[in-house]
Write a structure and sequence with these properties.
heterodimer, A: 103 residues, mainly alpha, B: mainly alpha, Sodium/glucose cotransporter
C-alpha cells in the first residue's frame, strides 16, 4: 500500500462515513442476533416453563420449539439484510473511495 | 460386481495389514459372521474414487503456496458457501444432533440454534475483514500489526489444540460408524483408512481438493438429510403434530422429551445453559478450519456472499436433523432390529450412541438407503477431517515454521513442503488418538473444542481487528488466559475430573467454562494493553489506522484469481 493513497483515503470524508455506517450496521445486527439468541438462552436458563408449555391444550409441541426455529430463521434473514446492504450501499462507496485514492 | 467385491475384500485385507501396529487398542468382539454391507461399501468406494480423481486433478493445478493453502483464491461465493456448510456440518452435527434429539427431544434444538447463531456474527464482524487482512491463517490477522513471533505462536497453539481435539472426535466417529456398518472392518482399521485417505487428499490436492471434497459432501449430505426428513414426514402423513405426538408416545420418558431444557435426567442449571450458549455461538467464530475458508475466495464480496449461502444451508440442515432425531424416536427406538437389549433400554442402540440417524435410514429405505446414508456420513467425516488437517498443518507450517522459526525468510516451496510433512504427521496423530479415544462420546469432544475456540481464538481476533488499543502484551496475556483457562477448568470440570479420571466430585462444577473464561480474557487483554507503556506498544496502536484501511477497503489485500 503506498503512503500516498493511504493518506488520500484517510483524508476522504467518505471513508470515515463508510466505516461509521458499516460498523453501525454490523454492530446493530450483531446486537439483534445476541438479543434474539440470549433471549432464548436466558429463557432456557431462568424461565424454562415458558418454553416447555405446549402451544395449545391439544398439542404436545412446546412453545420453545417454535421460538428455536424462529431464532434460526431470523438469523438467516439478518444475514440477508447485511449482504443486501453491503452489496448495494457499501461496495459502491468503497469503489468511489478507491477511485478517488488512485487519482 | 463380483470383481468389485473381490477388490473390496482385497482392499479390506490390505488395510487390515496396515492396522497391525495399532493392535494395542482393545479388539472389538467378533460378531457372528454378519453379512457384508455391500451397498454401503460400493457407495463408499465410488465416493473415494471420485474424490481421488478430484485430488489428482487438483494436484496438477496446485503449484504455489496460495494454491495449496487457499485454492488459488479462486473459489466463488456459492462454492465457498457450500464448502463452509461442508466443513461445518460434521458427522458430529449430523449424527450427534440427531442422537441428542433421539435421547433428549427438544433439548437437541438448543444445540442447533447455538451452532447456527455464530454465523451471522462471523458475517457482520469477521468474514470480510479476515479476507482483506489475512493470507493463509487467522493468525495472519491476529498478528497483523502486533509482534509476529509471540502472537503467531499463541494463535497457532490455540488453532492446534482446537484442531487436534476436533480431529479426535471425528476419527472416533469414523471408526465407530464404519465398524458398526461393516463389522468385517475393525474400529482400528476404519480409522487407519480415514487417516490414509485424508493424508492423500491433503498432501497432493491441498485446499483445492479439500474444497471440492467439501462441496460434493455438502451436496450429498443435504440431499441425504432431505430424503430422510421427507421419509419421516411421509410416514407421519406430513403432520408435525403427529410426528411429535408419536415420538412422545414412543420415547420411554414420554412428555419429558418436550419439557426438558437440559439433558433428560440432569438438573436444571442456569449458568451451565448460558455458558453452553456462549460457547456454541462464539466457538463457531473461532474455529481455525472455518476461518481458513475465507482466504480461498476471490474478494471480500465473495467472502460475504459465502456466509449467506453457508448460513442458509446450515440452518436448513439443522431443521432437518431435528426432524430426523424425532423420526428416529418413532421408527428406531423400541425396534428389536436396532436396539441392543430391549429388556434393559428401548433407546440404547447396537453400535453406540451416534447411530439413530443411520438406523433411521434403514427403517425408511432398507439396506440401500442405509448404505447411502452410511457412505454420506463417512464422506462427511473424511471431508471435515481433511479441512481440519489442512488448518492444523497451515498453523504449523505457515505460522510456526515460516514466520516464527524462519522469520518470514523461507521460500514458498519450503513452506508447502513443511506443510505436507505436517499433514502426514497430523494424520498419524489423528489415527493414534482416534484409537486411544474409542469409548468417548463424539458430540462431547466437539463441544469441548468450541470452548477453547470461543475463549482464545475468537476474542483476540475481534480485539485485534476492532480495538486500536490492543498491543502484543494484551493479545498474549488474553490469548493464553483463554487457552489455559479453558483447559484448566475443563480438566477440573465434571467431564474430565469425574467421568474420565474418576477423581470424585468436580472442583469446577460446570462442563462449559466459557461463561467465566471469556469475560476474564477480555478483562486481562484490556488491562494488559492499557498498562503497556512500551514504545513498541505505542507503535502497534499507531499501526491501527493502516490496518483499518486495509481491513475496511481491501486496499493491499491478497489478490484473488480473476474469472
Amino acid at each position: 500500500m503506498s503512503n500516498l493513497s493511504a493518506s488520500r483515503i484517510l483524508n476522504n470524508p467518505n471513508y470515515r462515513k463508510l466505516i461509521k455506517q458499516r460498523d453501525t450496521l454490523a454492530w446493530t445486527l450483531s446486537a439483534c442476533v445476541l438479543v434474539l439468541y440470549f433471549g432464548f438462552v436466558l429463557m432456557v436458563a431462568f424461565a424454562p416453563e415458558v418454553l416447555t408449555s405446549p402451544i395449545s391444550d391439544t398439542s404436545v409441541i412446546p412453545v420453545g420449539m417454535l421460538v428455536g426455529v424462529g431464532v434460526i430463521i431470523c438469523s438467516i434473514i439478518l444475514t440477508g439484510i447485511y449482504v443486501t446492504q453491503a452489496n448495494g450501499k457499501f461496495d459502491p462507496m468503497i469503489e468511489a473511495i478507491m477511485k478517488d485514492a488512485a487519482k | 460386481m463380483k470383481h468389485l467385491l473381490r477388490s473390496v475384500q482385497a482392499f479390506v485385507a490390505c488395510a487390515s495389514l496396515l492396522a497391525i501396529p495399532c493392535a494395542f487398542a482393545q479388539a472389538a468382539p467378533a460378531p457372528a459372521d454378519p453379512p457384508l454391507n455391500i451397498h454401503a461399501i460400493v457407495m463408499f468406494v465410488v465416493f473415494v474414487a471420485i474424490t481421488l480423481g478430484i485430488t489428482y486433478w487438483a494436484a496438477k493445478r496446485t503449484k504455489t503456496a496460495a494454491d495449496f493453502y487457499a485454492a488459488g483464491r479462486g473459489i466463488t461465493g456459492l462454492q465457498n458457501g457450500m464448502a463452509i456448510a461442508g466443513d461445518y456440518m460434521s458427522a458430529a452435527s449430523f449424527l450427534g444432533i440427531a442422537a441428542l434429539v433421539y435421547m433428549n427431544g427438544f433439548y437437541g434444538l438448543i444445540y442447533s440454534v447455538g451452532w447456527l447463531v455464530g454465523w451471522p456474527i462471523i458475517l457482520f464482524l469477521i468474514a470480510e475483514r479476515l479476507r482483506n487482512l489475512g493470507k493463509f491463517t487467522y493468525a495472519d490477522v491476529a498478528s497483523f500489526r502486533l509482534r509476529q513471533g509471540p502472537v503467531r505462536t499463541m494463535a497457532a497453539i490455540g488453532s492446534l489444540i482446537v484442531v487436534i481435539w476436533y480431529l479426535i472426535g471425528q476419527a472416533v466417529g469414523a471408526g465407530q460408524l464404519l465398524h458398526t456398518l461393516v463389522p468385517q472392518i475393525s474400529y482400528q482399521v476404519s480409522i487407519v483408512i480415514v487417516g490414509a485417505l485424508i493424508i492423500i487428499y491433503v498432501t497432493f490436492g491441498g485446499m483445492k481438493a479439500t474444497t471440492w471434497v467439501q462441496i460434493i459432501k455438502a451436496g450429498l449430505l443435504l440431499g441425504g438429510a432431505t430424503l430422510m426428513a421427507l421419509g419421516v414426514m411421509m410416514h407421519e402423513g406430513f403432520s408435525f403434530e403427529k410426528l411429535f405426538a408419536d415420538a412422545v408416545a414412543a420415547h420411554p420418558k414420554h412428555l419429558a422429551i418436550m419439557q426438558s431444557v437440559v439433558p433428560i435426567g440432569a438438573k436444571a442449571n442456569p449458568i451451565e445453559s448460558i455458558s453452553l450458549g456462549l460457547t456454541l455461538m462464539f466457538g463457531t467464530a473461532g474455529l481455525p478450519h472455518i476461518l481458513m475458508r475465507f482466504f480461498t475466495v476471490t474478494d471480500a464480496k465473495a467472502a460475504r456472499k459465502s456466509v449467506l449461502y453457508g448460513t442458509c444451508f446450515i440452518g436448513y440442515f439443522y431443521i432437518l436433523t431435528f426432524i430426523i432425531g424425532f423420526g428416529a424416536i418413532v421408527l428406531v427406538a423400541n425396534n428389536p432390529d436396532y436396539v441392543a437389549d430391549l429388556s434393559k433400554s428401548v433407546l440404547a442402540l447396537k453400535g453406540g450412541g451416534s447411530m439413530p440417524a443411520v438406523y433411521l435410514s434403514h427403517a425408511l429405505g432398507g439396506d440401500f438407503f442405509l448404505g447411502f446414508i452410511a457412505a454420506v456420513a463417512f464422506a462427511t467425516i473424511l471431508a471435515v477431517v481433511s479441512g481440519l488437517t489442512l488448518a492444523g498443518a497451515s498453523a504449523l507450517s505457515h505460522d510456526i515454521y515460516a514466520n516464527v522459526i524462519k522469520k518470514g525468510k523461507s521460500t514458498e516451496a519450503e513452506e508447502v513442503w513443511v506443510s505436507k510433512l505436517c499433514v502426514i504427521g497430523l494424520g498419524i496423530i489423528a489415527i493414534l488418538l482416534g484409537i486411544a479415544f474409542e469409548k468417548q462420546n463424539v458430540a462431547y469432544i466437539v463441544a469441548l473444542t468450541f470452548s477453547i475456540a470461543a475463549c482464545s481464538n475468537f476474542p483476540i481476533l475481534v480485539l485485534s481487528v476492532f480495538w486500536r488499543g490492543l498491543t502484543t502484551r494484551g493479545a498474549l496475556w488474553g490469548g493464553y488466559t483463554g487457552i489455559f483457562g479453558s483447559i484448566g477448568l475443563l480438566i477440573i470440570g465434571p467431564t474430565v475430573w469425574t467421568k474420565v479420571m474418576g477423581m470424585g466430585p468436580a472442583i469446577f462444577p460446570y462442563d462449559f467454562p466459557t461463561f467465566f473464561v471469556l469475560p476474564t480474557v477480555l478483562i486481562v487483554a484490556y488491562i494488559a494493553s492499557v498498562t503497556d507503556k512500551s514504545a513498541s506498544g505505542q507503535d502497534e496502536r499507531n499501526a491501527f489506522e493502516a490496518q483499518e484501511i486495509r481491513s475496511e477497503t481491501g486496499l493491499g489485500a491478497e489478490v484473488g484469481a480473476s474469472h
